[in-house]
From TrEMBL:
Gene name of the encoded protein: ligD
GO molecular function: ligase activity
Residues covered by the DNA ligase D polymerase domain: 130-378
Protein name in the entry: DNA ligase D
Superkingdom: Bacteria
Length: 402
């Protein structure tokens, strides 16, 4: 996906031959990137001629007064910089005051939705502002949206970031824009985040956490995946989650089931088994998950438990299979968490599951880098669904199930 916006030329670097561009933010020019690609030789010569006539030079940099406006195409907007900008055209009829920061934000796909208070601080520990959160969503949108598709959404909103209280929201508010899709279940009109406009509208309202059910509105009440939630007593006990995931991977491989792994963004790990749509009931899935959970406890009874009451777990990791049921939810892949580090519920490759893995490594900044580098451990997730089968596993489990 490509974006376009208008900018004013601010500098020309005589060393690297790049033009710097900026946007107007409350009357002040904010530099947001450099470009050289896209211009013809004639356009480049003409621009250089104009720049050199109307500027001053300082330390191999020609400083340009606001006034020369251009349209650029770019891949994304990250850390207050446009990525991979390419020249499109001169904007001779446009003033530099029209090349605003607001239009830049709007043009990254928000469809008339402006970002309010972009500099609002959200996470004090690492100086994350609202615009940083929106930038993260911009980069993650193509990865997170397939998991939100056609699912009744529950969000946790943080109107004041970590500086104030948070609250759960299920009901779609009356003021929601027309592009927000909804679906009724019982007496709640849930939001369904089927498009990027809804994603950014929620982001603008500081919905950090996106929690989704295991079924879609099209799956006739049947699960679209099985998820094991491996929940250690604390982040300091993350090694237990690593151990549990390693054992679970071996078990699932032995059953010829393809699995995917995700850091929860908090203190645990979640292991996914995508399922073919409308094939298995929650009851069948429960027989499978309960059997696997109990089997894992026989392997490491001192480390793992299925005890629901925390006081009775005695510092053991909780293998949560009870939560996998209709209407229950789990944090969506690539969702930010509302904790002190703004950590991300990040998919990883199984090869990354080493004993020195830390959940604190998955911040908005580090996950953004993973996304920019094209890393997508869940790339084959949906294509895998039709390859999965429990038809040989379930009869064996049912015959031995008590």
């Amino acid at each position: 996906m490509k974006y376009t916006a208008s900018f004013t030329i601010t500098e020309y670097n005589l060393k690297n031959k790049l033009f710097s561009v900026g946007v107007a933010d409350n009357g002040i020019i904010k530099n947001v990137g450099q470009f050289s690609e896209g211009m013809t030789k004639e356009e480049n010569t003409a621009l250089l001629s104009i720049v050199q006539k109307n500027a001053r030079t300082e330390d191999k940099v020609i400083l340009v007064e606001p006034g020369i406006c251009v349209e650029l195409e770019f891949a994304s907007f990250q850390n207050e910089k446009i990525i991979q900008p390419v020249f499109v055209q001169f904007l001779f009829q446009k003033s530099w005051q029209e090349c605003t920061y607001e239009q830049l934000l709007q043009n990254i796909g928000l469809d008339k939705l402006s970002i309010t208070n972009p500099d609002k601080p959200l996470f004090p520990a690492n100086n994350i502002r609202k615009i940083d959160f929106i930038n993260y969503l911009t980069l993650a949108e193509e990865k997170i949206l397939p998991f939100l598709q056609n699912r009744l959404l529950t969000v946790i909103r943080f109107p004041h970031g970590l500086f104030g209280e948070s609250f759960y929201q299920k009901q779609c508010p009356d003021y929601a824009p027309a592009f927000v899709e909804t679906s009724w279940k019982e007496d709640i009109n849930y939001i369904i985040c089927n498009n990027k406009q809804t994603l950014f509208w929620l982001g603008n309202q500081l919905a950090f956490e996106f929690h989704i059910p295991f079924e879609t509105v099209l799956s006739d009440g049947m699960p679209s995946e099985i998820v094991f939630d491996l929940d250690p007593p604390s982040r300091d006990h993350f090694f237990m989650a690593i151990k549990a995931a390693q054992i679970l991977k071996q078990v699932l491989d032995g059953l010829k089931l393809i699995s995917f792994i995700k850091i929860s963004g908090n203190k645990g790990i979640q292991v996914y088994i995508p399922l073919p749509e409308k094939t298995y009931t929650y009851e069948e899935a429960r027989i499978f998950t309960e059997f696997i959970a109990n089997y894992m406890i026989t392997i490491e009874p001192e480390l793992f438990t299925i005890e629901r009451l925390k006081k009775n777990r005695h510092n053991r990791l909780y293998i949560d299979y009870i939560q996998h049921s209709e209407g229950k939810t789990i944090i969506a892949p690539y969702s930010v968490r509302g904790n002190e580090g703004g950590y991300v519920a990040c998919p990883i490759f199984w090869e990354e599951l080493t004993n020195n893995l830390s959940p604190k490594a998955f911040t908005m900044k580090s996950v953004s880098e993973r996304l920019k580098n094209g890393e997508d451990p869940f790339q084959s997730y949906f294509a895998t669904k039709e390859k999965q089968s429990l038809k040989e596993v379930l009869p064996f489990i049912q015959s031995n199930h008590t």
